[in-house]
Amino acid sequence: MGHAVGTLKALHETDPEVFTAIRAEEKRQREKLVFIASENYASSAVLAAQGCLMTNKYAEGYPRRRYYGGCQHVDTVEELAIERAKQIFGCEHVNVQPHSGSQANMAAYLSVLKAGDTILGMDLAHGGHLTHGSRVNFSGILFQAFFYGVDRTTETIDYDAVQRKAEECRPRMLVVGASAYSRVLDFPRFQHIAQSVGAYLLVDIAHIAGLVATGLHPSPIPYADFVTTTTHKTLRGPRAGMVMCKAEHAKAVDKIIFPGLQGGPLMHVIAAKAVALKEALSPAFRMYQEQVIANARTLAAGLDELGYRIVSGGTDTHLFLVNLTSKGITGKEAQAALDAAGIIINKNAIPYDEKPPAVASGIRMGTPIVSTRGLGQSDMTQVVSLIDRVLQRPQEERVHRQVRKEVKALCARFPIFHTYQHAQV
Ligand code: DSN
């Protein structure tokens, strides 16, 4: 107990195995080019808060209404997180306690629905999310789930088809949001569809939260009953969730999160959410989000020029899907080859994919991480060429080696984790 709070030196002495794994992960994050659309590098300030001693505190309840004594300081951080979320998103109410996006969605559902009710969400196979009704997830186990998807030709949401589907299945809740859809979502239209069948509207902005926060994607707040998000994707905070809602649902949402679904809130994570939300209020954060979109567009356009088919023809956001069918390579093969070359992406089903998800015909690429490192559009042009060299010869180790070297050199031009680097043990 003699060390300064939370030092790597203490970790090294107590548990060299975990210390070594963390150091190895740090090196991986430093030296690889990551294009996983849902990942980001949280700032040193966010990491410091998330690793802080507020993890020691129990604080069931809400600020100034806790079940434990000694909550003055955790109340401060939770109130800061709440104020900042309201300021950024303009929501009437927010609960910052969900441990994850999945729990945030569960809370939104269970605040107004009961088991067996009908929900209508975007099909996972078309870019939706597991928690929007997939039968292997709580949302598909608890509720009767129906799905809408994208049009086969345009590969964008066909709103008339969503309307027809809603009229057929009469959901109690219409669920909007995606993890692999690159186009702007039309929230007024979704609200119109929900209202026409008497459904609640839940919009999950986990992927696009940073873009919504900075006005680079329209906000669903005026249209939706519930807006959920994770805080670690484009929003660049700690790994966690948040639920925003209309004032009329505030009591039900708070009650279902605690005591309904969770016990003690993770106060260290809530402190880190407050920090991330402060960062999201800065002009630099808007510039960052602009760069995220510009980088995604440049990357997609560059790949398109080399004959890679971009699903829906391009992107309005931080991500896009590449259909690799015409290149004669599966998503799984592409992921493995790029990984060997130091470029991290994930295989992804494309709409109407004939291959199983574990193989997939496509890959998903996102630019939140590389933009946090500081890479710009000219670097994206270099990345296009690196990716193409690997995917032209996915089996050739010589190519992997050469590209890996170039990736490492590119990463070295954009260093990250200064504090870790200087934390000598
Ligand atoms: N697993 C996340 C993603 O990669 O999009 C969503 O929860």
Give a verbal description of the structure.
The protein is α/β, with parallel strands linked by helices. It has two domains: 53-280, Type I PLP-dependent aspartate aminotransferase-like (Major domain) (Aspartate Aminotransferase, domain 2); 291-412, Aspartate Aminotransferase, domain 1 (Alpha-Beta Complex). Helices cover 46% and strands 13% of the residues. It contains 17 helices and 15 strands. It has helices spanning 8-14, 16-31, 44-50, 72-89, 101-112, 138-142, 159-169, 187-196, 209-213, 250-261, 267-280, 283-305, 331-340, 368-373, 377-392, 397-413, 418-422, and strands spanning 33-34, 61-62, 65-66, 93-95, 118-122, 144-148, 173-176, 200-204, 226-230, 241-245, 309-310, 319-323, 343-344, 346-348, 362-366. Strands 4-10-9-8-7-5-6 form a seven-stranded mixed β-sheet, sandwiched between helices. α1 (8-14) packs across α2. The longest helix is centred in the last third of the chain and has 23 residues, at 283-305. It starts with 7 loop residues before the first helix and ends with a helix. Residues 421-425 have low confidence and may be disordered. Residues 38, 101, 129, 179 line the site of D-serine.
Give the helices and strands, then pairings.
Blueprint: H1 8-14, H2 16-31, E1 33-34, H3 44-50, E2 61-62, E3 65-66, H4 72-89, E4 93-95, H5 101-112, E5 118-122, H6 138-142, E6 144-148, H7 159-169, E7 173-176, H8 187-196, E8 200-204, H9 209-213, E9 226-230, E10 241-245, H10 250-261, H11 267-280, H12 283-305, E11 309-310, E12 319-323, H13 331-340, E13 343-344, E14 346-348, E15 362-366, H14 368-373, H15 377-392, H16 397-413, H17 418-422
Parallel strand pairs: 1-13, 5-6, 5-7, 7-8, 8-9
Antiparallel strand pairs: 2-3, 4-10, 9-10, 11-12, 12-15, 14-15
Helix pairs in contact: 1-2, 3-11, 4-11, 5-10, 7-8, 12-15, 15-16
The structure holds D-serine.
